[in-house]
């Protein structure tokens, strides 16, 4: 009863400034905070309060009217948290503090906006350009990405239309997924240190219970880490995290592709060959039991095995099978006099002449179409193939909203809110180089079912990489 009366007094208007006190409920404490509603996502049920330089995830009680809240609101909140997990506040009730200043919150993206007369231009949801003068604590906008929506709050200019001053960036706490090795973990506090593939240490603040962390994880485990991070500081801790053990080494990724042998090396003790896939050349180690006398420079082989290092381009083969030439390309033109298509192999400087048995199909493939090419490559000294089969590939542009390191799949969402599951060609890219909200271009075979749209044998690349361009 005493606690309930206290809460009624607090929410009646008493200012709260980061002063927690322990409740009578064992194991929990009641915490009182005042801060800015930094992240507001009703669809995901994810709300973050920025208070006193720290970030707190809020889980509102059933009586809280969250529909009346807006990003950037000044809030007084009361809730409950565990002694060692005070960053996760549950059963939250809140009071919104009225802002007497002439403030405005806009939801906008960094599209064709750029620095202009010392101000930054952004495009709002009403398709109006606003000029934004950031507060002094923001030095440039490194970390933000074009075509991604953000929330800005600033003082509305009394004379210039659609202009904000002393602007702060809201919803900067964005999803982050990373594969890494566990260096240290403190189950009691929920704090861990991980090491990513570039040997960079990152602190992780975990929401999981002390018992769960103590029983399931030990140092040197390889993990999938899911959480949130400040987009303005790529070295900042990962917040509100969860970890999942992955039962394979960091870069031991299953791979299956068709490439061209460009060199063979036999030392008497070990056999290896260099195999080209697109613009990448892998060193493939071949166990004696799968070695084939058919292995020959210039020939095409299907390589099945495990990619042990993307950086050093190393693969340990489990099976090698002779194959026809298969590659992705772009149609450059056709020659009806010799029944040939001219095709540029994707991401290389190689131009191929592909002869079709059925000349009536030459007109089916327009200039610029992405295609999968299969045929007989009879002479390694010439980029010409015969008995060619052509299959058109799909092209999708969207932002990543999920990554699975185990299955090497990615889910992207395009501008029309269509979702695609991408099944990657693991020899073509390292998935750990991509992250949440990266805008990518995906090329592959599109297969549609009632449940989802799959793009298989997919090659991805960054569609826009303009973080550095956002500096004034």
Please describe what this structure looks like.
By secondary structure, the chain is mostly beta strands. It has six domains: 2-97, OB fold (Dihydrolipoamide Acetyltransferase, E2P) (Beta Barrel); 103-171, OB fold (Dihydrolipoamide Acetyltransferase, E2P) (Beta Barrel); 174-245, Beta Barrel (OB fold (Dihydrolipoamide Acetyltransferase, E2P)), CATH 2.40.50; 253-322, OB fold (Dihydrolipoamide Acetyltransferase, E2P) (Beta Barrel); 325-392, Beta Barrel (OB fold (Dihydrolipoamide Acetyltransferase, E2P)); 394-465, Nucleic acid-binding proteins (OB fold (Dihydrolipoamide Acetyltransferase, E2P), Beta Barrel). 4% of the residues lie in helices and 54% in strands. The chain is built from two helices and 32 strands. The protein has helices at 2-11, 210-216, and strands at 21-22, 28-41, 46-51, 54-60, 74-82, 85-97, 103-109, 115-116, 119-124, 129-134, 149-156, 163-170, 173-186, 191-195, 201-206, 222-230, 238-245, 253-266, 271-277, 280-286, 300-309, 314-322, 325-335, 340-345, 351-355, 370-376, 384-392, 394-404, 409-413, 419-424, 439-448, 453-462. It has a five-stranded mixed β-barrel. Strands 7-9-10-12-11 form a five-stranded mixed β-barrel. Strands 13-14-15-17-16 form a five-stranded mixed barrel. The longest helix is centred in the N-terminal third of the chain and has 10 residues, at 2-11.
């Amino acid at each position: 009863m005493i606690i309930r009366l206290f809460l009624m007094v607090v929410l009646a208007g008493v200012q709260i400034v980061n002063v927690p006190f322990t409740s009578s409920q064992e194991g929990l404490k009641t915490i009182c905070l005042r801060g800015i509603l930094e992240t507001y996502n009703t669809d995901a049920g994810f709300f973050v309060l920025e208070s006193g330089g720290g970030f707190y995830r809020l889980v509102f009680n059933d009586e809280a009217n969250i529909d009346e809240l807006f990003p950037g609101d000044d809030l007084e909140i009361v809730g409950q948290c565990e002694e060692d997990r005070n960053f996760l506040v549950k059963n939250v009730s809140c009071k919104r503090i009225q802002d007497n200043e002439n403030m405005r919150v806009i939801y906008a993206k960094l599209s064709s906006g750029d620095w202009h007369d010392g101000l930054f231009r952004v495009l709002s949801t009403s398709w109006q350009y606003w000029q934004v003068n950031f507060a002094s604590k923001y030095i440039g906008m490194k970390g933000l990405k074009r075509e991604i929506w953000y929330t800005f709050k600033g003082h509305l200019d009394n004379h210039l239309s659609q202009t904000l001053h002393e602007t702060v960036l809201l919803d900067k706490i964005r999803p982050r997924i990373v594969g890494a090795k566990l260096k240290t973990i403190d189950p009691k506090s929920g704090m861990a240190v991980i090491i990513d593939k570039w040997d960079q240490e990152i602190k992780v603040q975990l929401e999981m219970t002390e018992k769960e962390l103590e029983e399931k994880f030990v140092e040197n485990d390889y993990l999938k880490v899911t959480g949130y991070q400040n987009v303005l500081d790529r070295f900042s801790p990962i917040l509100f995290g969860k970890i999942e053990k992955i039962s394979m080494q960091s870069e031991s990724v299953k791979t299956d592709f068709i490439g061209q042998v460009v060199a063979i090396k036999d030392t008497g003790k070990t056999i290896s060959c260099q195999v080209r896939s697109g613009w990448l050349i892998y060193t493939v180690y071949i166990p004696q039991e799968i070695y084939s006398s058919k292995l020959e420079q210039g020939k095409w082989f299907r390589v099945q095995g495990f990619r042990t290092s993307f950086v050093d381009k190393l693969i340990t083969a489990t099976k090698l099978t002779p194959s026809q030439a298969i590659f992705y390309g772009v149609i450059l033109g056709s020659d009806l006099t010799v029944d040939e298509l001219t095709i540029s192999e994707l991401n290389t400087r190689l131009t191929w002449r592909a002869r079709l048995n059925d000349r009536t199909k030459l007109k089916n493939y327009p200039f610029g179409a992405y295609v999968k090419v299969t045929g007989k490559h009879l002479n390694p000294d010439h980029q010409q193939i015969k008995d060619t089969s052509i299959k058109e590939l799909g092209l999708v542009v969207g932002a990543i909203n999920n990554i699975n390191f185990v299955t090497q799949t990615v889910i992207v969402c395009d501008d029309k809110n269509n979702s695609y599951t991408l099944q990657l060609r693991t020899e073509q890219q390292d998935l750990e180089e991509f992250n949440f909200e990266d805008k990518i271009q995906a090329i592959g075979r599109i297969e549609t079912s009632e449940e989802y749209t799959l793009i298989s044998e997919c090659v991805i690349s960054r569609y826009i990489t303009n973080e550095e361009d956002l500096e004034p």
